Amino acid sequence: MGNSFGTLFRLTTFGESHGVGLGAIVDGCPAGLPITNELLQQALDRRRPGQSTLVSQRKETDTVELLSGVENGVSLGTPIGLLVRNVDAKPRDYQAMNQAFRPSHADYTYHAKFGISASSGGGRASARETVSRVAGGAIAAQVLQRFGVEIVAWVAQVGSVHAAIDAATVSRQAVDANAVRCPDPSAAAAMIELIEATRKAGDSVGGIICAIARGVPVGWGEPVFDKLDADLAKAMLSIPAVKGFEIGSGFAGTTMVGSAHNDALYRSADGVVHTQSNHAGGVVGGISNGESIFVRIAFKPTATIMQAQSTIDRDGAATTITGRGRHDPCVLPRAVPIVEAMMALVLADHALRHRARAGFSAEPTTHV
Fold this sequence. Notes:
This protein has a single domain, classed as Chorismate synthase, AroC fold (4-Layer Sandwich). The strands form 6 sheets. Strands 1-2-3-7-4 form a 5-stranded antiparallel sheet, with helices on one face. Helix 6 (228-237) runs antiparallel to helix 8 (332-358). The protein is of the alpha+beta class. The two termini are 30 Å apart. The protein has helices at 37-47, 107-114, 130-145, 172-175, 185-200, 228-237, 258-261, 332-358, and strands at residues 4-5, 10-15, 21-27, 64-68, 70-71, 74-75, 80-85, 150-158, 161-162, 207-214, 242-247, 265-267, 273-275, 283-284, 287-288, 293-299, 308-312, 318-322. A hairpin with a 5-residue loop joins strand 12 (265-267) and strand 13 (273-275).
């Protein structure tokens, strides 16, 4: 339970952080989409560890294997199986975890729920599980490309360092221009300095990632319980270390009055309906309104730090534990492609659900 996501476009992930490997089954992908190892690898390379001194130094190539559902670089419309093998697992780094629970990790809650937990790393709770999400998100992005939808995410804040970014024009090329994935060069330099100093102190730091989806048409999202913004919130809050989600003006909207917050409608010269501003973040009543969808996601500081911390052992006795192993002092640089992947999964699912709702009014087609 809890290992699958989506309705018509559905992702199921499996594997543990220090097991044989991790993988995914993507079900509901339309036939005829270009899907290749190279396409998936490009996405996974943006998430993999060891990219810079700012992230975990675990030496994983994250080489993806396509097991099914694709032939000659084209999706068959059948379940797509993916596998990424672990090549640099080090269970010995987690021997102390077998005796004591790590603060702010899922060790205690998993053990309390299941009566057993993975003996190495975080198991299914580890951020390494997201390798499967990024691979699935790369396939979802191919679906969205047929609808003209583009997603870009970036690091907007690390600790107290804020970036100034124009969400309407920011590009993935600008995001990937530096190791911290912040397209504001001066803020990026300050962020890198902060992360390096925090790492040297054996500590960690959190921050905020923003994401925008451009080209989303009017009508995606379902009433009441499957609202588009509700599904986006669930997707983002399912990412390890995420503790907050906002869409549009978010919490800042609480300081505004209705006359300032309401997005007035107008029709442009070409007949397209727009909003005067985008406080709603592109979603009204749980349904996309044709504007860009803008979200902000808050990430806590990495739970594993290289300092002694108070905790309890598996018998309930007080003890201390000091982190070991290879961990990100700040998860944000590698979380950017994860955020993009989860946004793509939600939007691809709702795109197909909206198309299915059109029923017989739509022209029959064998492709997206």
